[in-house]
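Input record, target 12 of the design panel.
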């Protein structure tokens, strides 16, 4: 199993979701609104901590846990849908998942049941 985390500009979220829902067996996703501080330029959408004089960029974090065989397709779909070619497009991180446990039953889940 792989966990795919994509930090994307929030205006591209609908395009990313549409692309992923077009998959043959889409595993589902979680979306979080996050703030990040990186090297990109400030924009009107930034959140400013005035006392500390730190700018945070508003982003969406898309999290997906999927079978290893789906990971490359998911990454390519996200990258294609969230790409503008400009600084600040975001980042995709893929990590190995050791296990997933259903809270209700305590059972270990194989990838197709996620």
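The sequence produced for target 12 reads:
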């Amino acid at each position: 199993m792989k966990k795919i985390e994509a930090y994307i500009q929030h205006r591209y979220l609908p395009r990313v979701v549409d692309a992923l829902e077009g998959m043959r067996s889409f595993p589902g996703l979680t979306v979080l609104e996050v703030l990040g501080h990186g090297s990109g330029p400030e924009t009107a959408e930034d959140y400013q901590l005035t006392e500390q004089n730190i700018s945070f960029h508003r982003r969406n974090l898309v999290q997906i846990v999927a079978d290893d065989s789906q990971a490359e397709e998911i990454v390519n779909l996200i990258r294609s849908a969230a790409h503008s070619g400009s600084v600040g497009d975001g980042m995709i991180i893929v990590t190995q998942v050791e296990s997933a446990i259903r809270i209700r039953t305590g059972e270990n889940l194989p990838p197709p049941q996620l």
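The chain has two helices and five strands.
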